[in-house]
Design goal:
72% of the residues lie in helices and 0% in strands. By secondary structure, the protein is mainly alpha-helical. The longest helix has 34 residues. The protein is globular and about 75 Å long.
C-alpha cells in the first residue's frame, strides 16, 4: 500500500482488501494470529532463551530451550574466512570491506557512466585480489586453494559479474547482427548453454577441460570454474540485454543513422543506455541469482561460505548446532541479496524521476 496516500484512504483500502466480508475477516485474523505466534516463538527461541557466549557452551545441547549462538561466537572466523591462514585473516576481512565499499560507491550518481563504473569496479576487484593473494607489497602469498568463506563467495560473484557482463553485451550484439550466419550461430550457442544446468557446466570446466586442453591453458581449477560460470551468466544476461534493445522504438536507431552516427556511437550512446534502463529489473534479478548460486561450487570441492558453515558444526563439540549455523549463513546471504534488490529499486526510482 502506498504510504503517500491520505490516512483515511489507506484505512478504507485496508478495510476493503482484508475485512470486506466475514470470511475475509476470519482469514485475516487467523493468519494474523498465526504470524504473531510464529514470530513470538522465533523471538523466544532466538533471543530470550538463547545462549550467546562460547563460555556458556554447557547450557547448549539437544535439550536446550533456545538457540545456541555460542557456536557463532566460537566458530565465526571459520565461517567467514574458511581455510585462510589465521594470522592473515585481517586481509580477507579488508578485502571484503573493499568490495562492499565499491558497491556503495557505485550508488553515487557521479559514477553512473560506463567508463567510471568500469574503472571503479576494476580498481576495487584488483585491490581485493591483491589483498587476498598477496605476494606483493610485503604481503605473504596465499594461493586460491587456501581461500574460503565469505571472501571466496564474493570473489566468485565479482569475477563472474566483471567477466560476464561485457561478454553478455558482445553476445547480445552478435545475436542481433545483420549477418544471418553470425546471428544464427550466436543464437545456437546462447540457447545451448542456457539449456544446460549450471552444475554440469561447472563440472565440465573443473574436471573435463584439463583432459582436452594443452598444459599451458589448464590453469587453476577455481579460475576454470569462474570462466564457465561467467559464460553461463553471459548467455542469460545477453538475452536480458537483447530484450531491452528490442523494447526500444525502431525509429531511434534509424534516426541516428540518418544523422550520420556510426555503429559504435549508436550502440554506446543511444541503444545500450536505454536497453539497460529497460532491462534493469531483470538484470538485478540475474545478479541476485548469480550471488546465491555461488553456493554450488561447494559440490566441486571449494570451501565457500556454505562449506565453511558445514565445517563449523561438523565436529562432536558443535554437531547439534547446525540450525544456528545455517541461520547465520542465511542472514549473510539475506544482507547481500537485500542490498542488491534495494539498490535496484533505488536505480529504478532515480531513472523514473529522470524520465519525467
Amino acid at each position: 500500500m502506498d504510504a503517500t496516500l491520505p490516512r483515511q484512504t489507506r484505512l478504507r483500502a485496508l478495510r476493503t482488501d482484508y475485512f470486506s466480508t466475514r470470511l475475509d475477516t476470519l482469514v485475516t485474523l487467523g493468519f494474523g494470529l498465526l504470524a504473531a505466534w510464529v514470530l513470538w516463538s522465533l523471538f523466544d527461541w532466538g533471543v530470550l532463551h538463547a545462549v550467546w557466549s562460547a563460555e556458556n557452551r554447557e547450557a547448549c545441547g539437544h535439550g536446550a530451550e533456545g538457540a545456541c549462538w555460542a557456536v557463532i561466537d566460537a566458530r565465526w572466523r571459520l565461517i567467514l574466512f574458511g581455510l585462510y591462514p589465521f594470522e592473515e585473516q585481517w586481509r580477507s576481512a579488508l578485502a571484503c570491506a573493499v568490495i562492499v565499499l565499491t558497491g556503495g560507491a557505485s550508488c553515487a550518481p557521479w559514477f553512473w557512466t560506463a567508463r567510471r563504473l568500469a574503472a571503479l569496479w576494476v580498481a576495487g576487484f584488483v585491490t581485493f585480489y591483491v589483498l587476498m593473494r598477496g605476494g606483493v607489497f610485503g604481503l605473504t602469498e596465499v594461493s586460491e586453494q587456501n581461500w574460503g568463506g565469505l571472501s571466496l563467495t564474493i570473489f566468485i560473484f565479482a569475477s563472474v559479474t566483471l567477466l560476464g557482463m561485457p561478454l553478455a553485451i558482445v553476445f547480445a550484439l552478435l545475436r542481433r547482427s545483420q549477418l544471418p550466419w553470425i546471428a544464427r550461430t550466436m543464437g545456437v550457442i546462447i540457447d545451448a548453454i542456457r539449456s544446460l544446468p549450471l552444475l554440469s557446466i561447472m563440472f565440465t570446466f573443473a574436471i573435463v577441460l584439463p583432459f582436452v586442453l594443452p598444459g599451458w591453458m589448464i590453469g587453476d581449477k577455481l579460475h576454470r570454474v569462474i570462466a564457465g560460470y561467467a559464460l553461463f551468466f553471459a548467455c542469460y544476461q545477453a538475452e536480458i540485454i537483447r530484450g531491452g534493445i528490442q523494447s526500444l522504438p525502431g525509429g531511434q536507431e534509424e534516426a541516428a543513422q540518418a544523422l550520420g552516427l556510426g555503429y559504435w556511437h549508436r550502440i554506446g550512446h543511444i541503444i545500450l543506455p536505454q536497453a539497460f534502463r529497460n532491462a534493469l529489473p531483470a538484470t538485478i534479478n540475474q545478479l541476485v541469482i548469480t550471488f546465491k548460486e555461488t553456493s554450488l561450487v561447494v559440490i566441486i570441492g571449494f570451501f565457500e561460505i556454505l562449506a565453511s558453515g558445514n565445517a563449523a558444526y561438523g565436529n562432536s563439540e558443535w554437531n547439534f548446532a547446525h540450525v544456528e549455523v545455517y541461520a547465520f549463513v542465511g542472514l549473510i546471504y539475506f544482507v547481500f541479496v537485500f542490498a542488491l534488490s534495494r539498490y535496484g529499486a533505488y536505480l529504478e526510482r532515480r531513472m523514473a524521476v529522470a524520465e519525467r
